[in-house]
Design goal:
Strand content: under 5%
Radius of gyration: 26 Å
Structural class: mainly alpha
Shape: elongated
Largest sheet: none
Number of strands: 0
Order of helices and strands: HHHHHHHHHH
Helix content: 55-70%
Length: 195
């Protein structure tokens, strides 16, 4: 408080480090330290509000804090605090992301691409992908295959090549391609050339 008004909102350890006391004078060097600590505290509180809504990766939270106008040093300090408190963990975020999306039928290729775009480290991505199909994490292939089967049934009147193209695109968007997807599509539309 300065002049009866709140001037900075900072953690108590900053006040202790600067040896500030109620009614005491403010050292000339303290204002810059208090400004930086207040910005970090603001970034910390903003990040907490974001984490209340849903989990985030560190890189994603950093981008959002910078867009909100927090300085990079303040955002980094806030993210370090969140990590130290166990509230920000990219490995746990990746596992949760994979478990949720795999249950909806998102395949490994799409999961890797999405997590990389969110700034998750490749080692965390691969560890999370390894949980697919075990430990309560649904196998996304079965869900996607069931959805593709329904789509194929609704496209019976279309030419075979159109059905193949649409099913291939559908499975690719979900993160499935290659021989397994081709065999599944052949099974859904048949292998005979009916045009």
């Amino acid at each position: 408080m300065v002049g009866g008004q709140t001037a900075w909102t900072v953690p108590a350890e900053v006040v202790d480090r600067l040896a500030l006391v109620e009614g005491g004078s403010l050292p000339s060097t303290a204002a810059a330290v208090l400004d930086a600590a207040a910005d970090e505290e603001g970034a910390f509180r903003a990040a907490l509000r974001m984490l209340e809504r849903r989990s985030h990766s560190r890189a994603e939270l950093a981008r959002k804090l910078l867009r909100k106008g927090h300085r990079e040093a303040a955002a980094d300090g806030a993210l370090d605090r969140l990590h130290a408190l166990g509230l920000l963990d990219d490995a746990a975020f990746a596992e949760h992301y994979v478990a949720t999306r795999a249950g909806r039928g998102t395949g490994p290729a799409r999961l890797r691409r999405d997590l990389a775009a969110l700034g998750v480290a490749p080692t965390d991505i691969e560890a999370a992908i390894a949980t697919v199909g075990r430990g309560g994490v649904a196998d996304p292939w079965q869900k996607s295959l069931a959805l593709a089967t329904r789509r194929a049934a609704s496209m019976e009147s279309l030419p075979r090549l159109t059905r193949i193209r649409r099913l291939t695109t559908f499975l690719a968007r979900r993160g499935f391609a290659g021989e397994e997807a081709r065999r599944a599509i052949d099974g859904l539309v048949g292998t005979a050339d009916r045009g």
